[in-house]
Amino acid sequence: MQKEDLLLKVQDIFRDVLDDEEIVLSETSTAEDVEGWDSLTHIQLIVAIEKKFKIKFTSKEILSWKNVGELIDCLASKLA
Fold this sequence. Notes:
Blueprint: H1 3-17, H2 39-53, H3 59-64, H4 68-79
Helix pairs in contact: 1-2, 1-4
């Protein structure tokens, strides 16, 4: 799956979890850029992404991400 496709799917998850259809993600997006993305919703987002793609992230992986692009890179490597 292409990174652009993954970004769109992840964006849909963000919109669903944060209940905001206006969210537009880019690879450089961070929690500071998205209203409502706090520590609690971060966990909900991770769980929703894991369920959608039927994968599991390690705590080390999650803590290493600095932006959505790094999340997408990690997701792409698990799906490869």
